[in-house]
Design brief:
This protein is mostly beta strands. A hairpin with a 7-residue loop joins strand 4 and strand 5. The chain is globular and about 50 Å long. Helix 2 packs across helix 4.
């Protein structure tokens, strides 16, 4: 859908496409008509597809952006026992209100987050709770570290628990961390994502690096109800910031992220 909406780096064409996105994302959209004809074959009539593409629109001076998104049919279904520590997570809700699999809210394991060898992310599997990740909620949303995760005990969980905010497109709920990266070095970002269902209005996760949108994964890109793989390659500026944004258009909804890793490409 992104490639169909922005098929060329021509300034004239790009300007027209960017103008459509600026108007389209100004408010929450529900109509199923009025889309650019060149993009309807790839994007269809679901507003979430256009919001996803617009949020990840390219710049005229692009960098390395080799992306893939593959689905996996493997999902851990057993619920592990959470620890009794209450010091290592920052949460604003309990378990999700609607999901295809049960989740148990955890107060967080009793461990100190450490950096894995060669990985620019700390606590990417959320086995030590939330820190040093920073979570930001908006009206109608909440977050928690819950079990089960993807091939691990815990995962980060976003929940849409109330009406979708009319300004959610401009100021979405998010999860971010400052990375330990070296400037000029190519890195591979990988993470696992989970959506409780696939609908036209469920929405997507947007990924930003240093404030720039670089990748999206829609609720229907993989198999709903299980964790799916995501990979993106980029050149680091050094000390980069990774940010996941939750642009969800359906209430209730449950989205999870787990096993986040940023490692050198070579």
């Amino acid at each position: 859908c992104l490639r169909a909406l922005f098929p060329t780096q021509s300034p004239a064409v790009y300007s027209s496409d960017a103008a459509f996105c600026a108007t389209f994302t100004a408010t929450v959209r529900t109509q199923t008509t009025g889309f650019p004809s060149k993009a309807t074959a790839a994007c269809g009539t679901a507003p979430a597809r256009y919001s996803s593409a617009c949020s990840c629109k390219p710049t005229l001076a692009s960098t390395l952006t080799s992306t893939t998104s593959t689905s996996s049919s493997t999902s851990k279904t057993s619920t592990s026992t959470s620890s009794t520590s209450t010091t290592s997570t920052s949460t604003t809700s309990t378990s999700s209100t609607s999901s295809t699999s049960s989740s148990t809210t955890s107060a967080g394991p009793t461990c100190t987050p450490k950096q894995s060898f060669n990985d620019a992310v700390i606590n990417g599997d959320f086995e030590c709770g939330l820190p040093p990740w920073v979570a930001q909620d908006i009206a109608g949303t909440s977050h928690a570290v819950t079990s089960p995760g993807d091939a691990s005990n815990f995962a980060y969980e976003f929940d849409q628990i109330g009406p979708v905010s009319p300004t959610a497109n401009q100021n979405p709920a998010s999860l971010s961390q400052s990375l330990i990266t070296q400037g000029g070095v190519p890195y591979t970002l990988s993470f696992r994502s989970y959506f409780d269902k696939c609908t036209g209005s469920e929405g997507f996760i947007g990924v930003k690096i240093n404030g720039q949108p670089v990748y999206t994964v829609d609720a229907c890109d993989g198999t709903a109800g299980v964790f799916n793989s995501n990979v993106y390659q980029f050149f680091a500026a050094g000390g980069d910031t990774l940010r996941f944004e939750f642009l969800i258009g359906e209430n209730p909804a449950t989205v999870k992220i787990d096993n986040v890793s940023v490692v050198p490409l070579h």
